[in-house]
Amino acid sequence: AAQEVAKADPQFSAPLADKSLFKTEIFWLATKGIGTLLLPVIKEAFHTFQGIAGYFLHKDRANADTGWREFLLAEATLREPSFLERLGHLVNLTFRFLQHVAAGGQQALPAPAPGPEWHALPTTVLENAIELCDLYRDRQSRPQSSIPTGLFVYLDPEPVMTTLCVVMASDDHVRDPSLRGQAVKLLHRLCISFPQWQERLNQPPLSQHLIPCLINVFIAVEKAIMSYYDLSYRYKYELRLPVMELFELTLQNDGHRKVLNNFVRGFGSDRFLKLLTQLINDSNSQTEEAIRTVKEFHQNKAEQAQVEAGRGQHDEQVLNDDQTATGEDVYRRSRMNYKEHAKKYFGLASKTWKTLWLLVKHCAQVIVEGHTLLEQLLHTSLDAQLYFLVGPEMKSIKSSPQEYDELGFNPKELVKQIAEIYMFLVRVNRDEVARIISKDERYYSSTTFSKAVSFLRKYSLLPPDQLTDFDAFVKELAERVTQQRAVFDEADIPAEYLCEMMADIMSDPVQFPQSKKIVDRSVAVRQIMGSDRDPYANTPVKVEDLIPMPELKAEIHRFAKEKGIALEGGNIFD
After folding, report:
1. How confident is the model at residue 531 (pLDDT cuts 50, 70, 90)?
2. Nearest to 215 by CA among 291, 270, 142
3. How many Å apart are CA 133 and CA 155, to the nearest integer?
4. What is the C-alpha to C-alpha distance for residues 520 and 526, in angstroms, rounded to an integer?
């Protein structure tokens, strides 16, 4: 299709001597030159020569001076005003061209389906433009209130920001999750650095379309992989950091909050549920990784001291190619720097929890009414974290308050956020939240929730009226759980009424088309939101592929009505 479009262009068959092609040829040659000539020089100057100068500063002064001279020479050349002006003009032209081709000459946001011109465009054009801006952004060391300087004096924010949003928003335009993550990273850095760019977020078209773009790119980077050795998914989490910070920034604006509300109640509801699923998974994984690392640190403290003194051995075999000429383990610092690792993951977890808190605050009604994620949010996130923070598990960490401060771990703030999230949900539907918590036999404990109330009161973490409301809910919940569990104990629930995954009575049974397993709809949807696969057959599946079981549903609801068992969403015979 791209070839047909090209052949239909009169310039395709024009003779090479035709001067009308000159500007086009110059543009493409300059674009190619950015990737093949300019970027290698910038990387060499800003990274290699500066790194050499720093590394040899106290080891080999001659090499350090050589590296520093080369760096300063390149710095002077690459920052020469007339060069930056011409480079800025080319970058502007590139982003305008990308925006035009991505939208097919139409309005760029919301992103239309890409045409053959976009598919014929080399990906390197986009990659090089983003990388070039990112490299020059790295060289800016100005305070947040600064005006654009250097290359960015000459850039027009509109085509740059619009093109980045198209890349973030559309799977059809860019499939590489890492490139989409780099786009949002650049957008975030430019907005944080330059208030003039940040103001554009609250102006059309971004004021209407930025929130869906952020939701889409957050979901997309789930599949971003830097290395198979990144077992803790740090690369994915770091690509999500700018998304979460942009959420925090934009949701202060009433216009963006309205867009979010309309999006999650309309065509974007499935995307929003997927976002929440991934946020819940991230918050749990990050907190667990940080706490696990702290535990390892204390368990291996004596062993670490021996290793650092050169007298001990790792519990992991150190291969020959992992050693220097003197036999030192070159990866010793990364293997043994427990505190830095824990600090990184506590920081990630803090950002993720803040974003989760923010979205629940503004979308609590959608979450409760949708039912799909409410159980996962309550059981695996809120109940579980409260159990670890004020329950018996907290004692196993064995860290001091000073060490918590050093690691950036703030249990008080986290307990406060969890209590507030409970109350956001309770204000929407008190009975439904209590019913779901009562099903949690793994993490729910009346003792743990009572300790949470005492913890909040001791450190004055909530205003008096909110603390009173939370305390009343905790007491009501304890009574509700006792009654509900007594009902379940007395009822002899038939095996076919139980979800095959969660072993709990179903409210809306559905069948996976491939594996033929019958589970509750909310459980099936959560699985699909997380992986888009049948968990039993490991085959692709969509929510609309699930097979309803209306006759079984009627039997279950009739049984629950007779036994007094509360079901998700209520009983159809009430």
Report:
1. confident
2. 270
3. 10
4. 10
Burial degree of 396 (CB within 10 A; 0-12, 13-18, 19+): exposed
Contact between 166 and 127 under an 8 Å Cβ cutoff? The reply is no
Classify residue 231 as exposed, middle or buried by CB count within 10 Å of its CB (0-12, 13-18, 19+): exposed
Q: Which two tokens stand for residue 405?
A: 């401060």
At 351-365, the pLDDT tens digits run 999 999 999 999 999
Q: Which residues of 97-130 are buried (b: 16+ CB within 10 A; e: fewer)?
A: bbbbbbbeeeebbebbebbebbeebeeebbbbbb
Q: How confident is the model at residue 14 (pLDDT cuts 50, 70, 90)?
A: low
Helix (H) / strand (E) containing 193:
helix 177-193
Burial of 420: CB neighbours in 10 Å, binned 0-12, 13-18, 19+: middle
| Number of helical (H) and strand (E) elements in the chain, helices listed first | 27, 3
Residues 294 and 338 sit within 8 Å (Cβ to Cβ): yes
Q: Give pLDDT tens digits for 129-161.
A: 999 999 888 655 444 445 567 889 899 999 999
What span, in angstroms and rounded, lies between the C-alpha atoms of 131 and 182? 8
Residue tagged 């939240």 (tokens): 433
Is residue 439 a contact partner of residue 402, using CB atoms and an 8 Å limit? Answer: no
> What 8-state DSSP symbol labels residue 409?
-
How distant, in Å, are the alpha carbons of 187, 275, 349, 508, 571 from that of 563?
Answer: 56, 37, 42, 18, 12
User: Which tokens is 124 given?
Assistant: 């390197």
Say whether pLDDT at 237 is over 80: yes
Both tokens assigned to 362: 């503004």
> Which of 55-59, 238-242, 405-409, 487-491 has the highest average model confidence (pLDDT)?
238-242
The DSSP code for 36 is I
Structure tokens at 472: 């009343």
Per-residue tokens: 29: 């040659």
Sign of the alpha-carbon dihedral angle for 174, 176, 182, 185? positive
What is the token pair recorded at 217? 């790119």
Strands (E) in 404-553, as ranges, are 509-511, 518-520, 547-548
Judge whether 396 and 453 are in contact, CB under 8 Å: no
The Cα 52–Cα 517 span in angstroms is: 60
Mean pLDDT of 210-216: 97
Return the closest-CA partner of residue 1 out of 122, 116, 172: 116
Whether the pLDDT of residue 314 is over 50: the answer is no
Buried b (16+ CB within 10 A) or exposed e, 452-478: bbebbeeeebbeeeebebbbebbeebb
* CA atoms of 116 and 112, how far apart (whole Å): 13
**Radius of gyration of the chain, Cα coordinates, nearest whole angstrom:** 28
| C-alpha span between 438 and 348 (Å, rounded) | 30
Give Cα separations from 431 to 369, 395, 437, 438, 504 (angstroms): 12, 33, 10, 10, 18
d(CA 347, CA 338): 14
**Bridge partner list, 547:** 511
**Cα distance between residue 54 and residue 48, in whole Å:** 10
Its pTM surpasses 0.85: no
